[in-house]
From TrEMBL:
<dbReference type="InterPro" id="IPR004045">
    <property type="entry name" value="Glutathione_S-Trfase_N"/>
</dbReference>
<protein>
    <submittedName>
        <fullName>Glutathione S-transferase family protein</fullName>
    </submittedName>
</protein>
<dbReference type="InterPro" id="IPR010987">
    <property type="entry name" value="Glutathione-S-Trfase_C-like"/>
</dbReference>
<dbReference type="Pfam" id="PF13417">
    <property type="entry name" value="GST_N_3"/>
</dbReference>
<feature type="domain" description="GST C-terminal">
    <location>
        <begin position="82"/>
        <end position="212"/>
    </location>
</feature>
<dbReference type="Pfam" id="PF00043">
    <property type="entry name" value="GST_C"/>
</dbReference>
<dbReference type="InterPro" id="IPR004046">
    <property type="entry name" value="GST_C"/>
</dbReference>
<feature type="domain" description="GST N-terminal">
    <location>
        <begin position="1"/>
        <end position="77"/>
    </location>
</feature>
<dbReference type="InterPro" id="IPR036249">
    <property type="entry name" value="Thioredoxin-like_sf"/>
</dbReference>
<dbReference type="InterPro" id="IPR036282">
    <property type="entry name" value="Glutathione-S-Trfase_C_sf"/>
</dbReference>
<dbReference type="InterPro" id="IPR040079">
    <property type="entry name" value="Glutathione_S-Trfase"/>
</dbReference>
Length: 212
């Protein structure tokens, strides 16, 4: 039986949940925060979420977990076989985990995490400086999406799932994408957020996290 550890608002945890849902894999979730406790570090040596257990086996890092799931549960693949497409899917996953995450989830953390975990008000200067970087990621993604339905090939891959996971926080914060400047990105993100299994995970989170 699979158990996923980590609270749902983390884009990395959400990424794994989206892949589990897409592949229709049963699992349970423990709403664990990151920790430096010895027990936690045994399963997740960097003290980060998510980590996942599958019977006696445990593994951390969202991208590594997804690749494990892809090997063990090959139905509904999220990584293409063809080498260039495979590499592109991994690259765009990396771009989401780093640049996109640093900007969008950085703001999300200031708004929600700082008051909850650090006991301080959001730092509006940090938020403003991150908002000013939206065009950097929007321009790149707009160009990557030119003439395409999804980021890699014509079907959903880890690239789209990782990006959606961050954009769920972007839309959750009340931001929108100006479709006169970034028409491809605006259309693409709107369509992704309406895909049934994605919408369900994002909607369910509100309830799951209500008492967190
Ligand atoms: N590369 C890791 C990043 C995971 C990560 O940074 N998780 C955050 C929560 S969103 C965390 O646990 N932060 C605690 C820390 O950095 O100590 C992954 O893809 O799983």
């Amino acid at each position: 039986m699979i158990t996923l550890y980590g609270f749902s608002f983390s884009p990395y945890v959400r990424k794994v949940r989206l892949v589990l849902a897409h592949k229709n894999i049963e699992y349970s979730q423990v709403m664990a925060p990151p920790s430096q406790d010895a027990d936690f570090l045994q399963k997740s040596p960097l003290g980060k979420i998510p980590y996942l257990t599958d019977g006696d086996f445990s593994i951390s890092d969202s991208s590594v977990i997804v690749q494990y799931l892809e090997k063990k549960y090959p139905q509904m693949p999220v990584l293409p076989q063809e080498p260039h497409s495979f590499a592109r899917a991994l690259w765009l996953d990396e771009y989401s985990d780093t640049k996109v995450n640093e900007i969008i989830t950085g703001i999300f953390f200031e708004r929600f995490g700082a008051p909850k975990f650090l006991g301080r008000d959001p730092d509006e200067a940090i938020i403003k400086s991150k908002e000013m970087q939206f065009p950097v990621i929007f321009n790149y993604l707009e160009q990557e999406l030119k003439g395409k339905k999804f980021l890699v090939n014509e079907c959903l891959t880890l690239a789209d799932i990782s990006l959606t996971s961050n954009f769920a926080n972007f839309f959750g914060l009340g931001y929108t994408i100006d479709d006169s400047q970034w028409p491809n990105l605006a259309r693409y993100t709107e369509k992704l957020m309406k895909i049934d299994f994605i919408k369900k995970i994002v909607d369910d989170e509100q309830e799951e996290m209500a008492d967190f």
